Amino acid sequence: MDTITKAQNDERLYRHIQLPNGLCATLVSDPRTRSVSKEAGVALSVGVGSFSDPPEMQGLAHFLEHMVFMGNKKYKQENELDVFLQENGGYSNAYTECEHTMFYLTILPEKLDPALDHFASMFIEPLLSPSCFHREINAVDSEFQSALHCDHERGQQIFASQCRVGHPYRNFLWGNAKSLTQSGKHRAEELLRSFFEAHYSSDIMNLTIVSCHSLDDLEAMARLHFSSIKNRCLKKIRESTSALTITADGDVQSNDNVLCLPFEPTDPKCFTVTHIKSSNQESNTLRLIFQLPPLPHLYSCLPLDYISSLLGHESEGSVLEELKKRNWATHLSVGCANDGYSKSKLSYLFEVTIILTTHGKIHFEDIIELVLAYIEIVRQMGLQKWYHDELKTLSSLDFENASEIEVDEYAISICEAMNLGVKVEDLLTSGHIYVQSPIEWCPQLEMLLLSYLQPKNMKVLLLTSEFDYSDEEKKVEPWFLSEYCILKMKEEVVMRWADVKVENFSFLHMPPKNIFIPSNLSLLPADDDDLVPKMIIETPLYRSWHSTYNPFKQPKAKVCLYFWLPHALNASGKVYSPIYLEIYLEMLRMILTPIAYFAEVAGLYFQVQGRVSCLY
Question: What residues act catalytically?
Fold first, then answer.
């Protein structure tokens, strides 16, 4: 029975089932002849990840992800699944998150049944052969080596080192050759086998299959191949009490007894900023990381959507616009990243990331105060229903008119929603639209979350290419070997942040209403045979062509304006003219940002580019 809420134009059929061994599966039948991919897609998640790594073998969950591909009792050859998929137009891959591990594949629909047999066998009785250890440890290490010079990952590991001792956020999540071999080969074999037997259980697995097969055929295949995975009865053991709950009346109830945030609240007298040497010679980044209670079960009201949208706005009166005026920053991003580290069942990490100018990095204290001032302005103003309604409208528009994604990505997205424990009917809508369950407008929750956005719940990372400290001052993070220095902030500076005077920031304010949000999305008459645009206007100054071709029946249009500038690239010589043109275009983009941002938020994308003889 199709009980899953879907977009109006979604022609796919859905069914959610639970196998006798507790494994939950969402089946998607796509009968359309026209789709992004004609392949079938499969995703299976296991409810264990890097947060469960034992201290003596960090990276074990990631290592096990590699090892389950290396043969099983039924298909003993290493990578036999990959060989089968490659011979039949498909591929497979996997990734390890903090609290789950995701495996996925694509395959030609006519080969889906044998592919599922290969795939399910990996989780029934994998060999985990020691003969593969050396090669797969090197594969894990290779992934780690590729991330060594990534400032984001380097900063995250230094942040981890500042979390509570014994807290999962302190783990070395990547794993490398050193962390996977330091316990010795024999002990590593024991740990790998025991980790699989302790955590790979059918009742904490979720499966999604997307194919052109009928729902009945997909259900038959799922039951045939995946019912034999062992149920170790882990689901009830791992169920936890939520730190925050919302009543039907919109009241927020907090359970501090189950709340264990990553780091201790910071005393203003001991507040520090971590200055990290950037691996990028021209990079200057300020990261403000706030710890919040975990929120996955409150998906219905899109928690943090309100403050993220306001704090990340780029219109007049926004934080970024003021930073640009002062030549302190060029870009700003806000919110919780869609990864298991930023959104877990233990905590949410709300981050403000600012790309600083050379001038801005010496004003990082003032920039932090500016951000905190805007947060306080929003808190004092109270939540504005009209702005919430705009966000609600935009989220619904995005959901109803979303572009189709590849079949494996779609299977993964549904599996990810299942991991969060959302209701079956909300599997497609969770994280995309406001759902009336129990309440979609909850000012009390947003105000509570705003109360967490203050210095005592904040870690500050400053990454710059300039890093001039003595050997006594410098520290080295042991895994990424990142150089950093702990800067103790003056108490009066931290107190100024904690008790920010909003009257000194009158230039910061809420954005005006967005005039670009559409109110009527009715489709105009279209001609599917109208493939070639027809000229509809011709004058001495310009010509215009038009086509009504709209095969996907989406309320979308594309307008291209070409300005012919035959002499532009020769006005200052062949070398200088292209440079001047690009400088002009960049200035134009910056000038138009405050108004263009509103259009972009409403789904109208704008760009200005230059090429030989024209602008478009």
Answer: 65
